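Notes to self, Glutaredoxin:
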Amino acid sequence: MLNVVFYTKENCSLCEDASSLLTLLQNEYAFTIEERDIYTNDKWLEEYQLLIPFVKINKIELNCEQINLESLEGALKQETKSA
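result:
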């Protein structure tokens, strides 16, 4: 099954929106969501602090400015075809 890695933090409205989109898309695509709080890992904090919410779907990476329903669905379609 496809695994989506979702970098997030508490009290982040953009993160909540992205989480809602991912949950919505789980109705159409089979994938799990691995949620990672950037404040629990120094490397994640350094790498993603200015980019969250940040989503990794295999080699596809989407940052806060790129995440929307269309981009997430497009990435999921692409990666479920190649799986």
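- The helical segments are 13-25, 42-48, 69-82.
- The mean pLDDT is 96.
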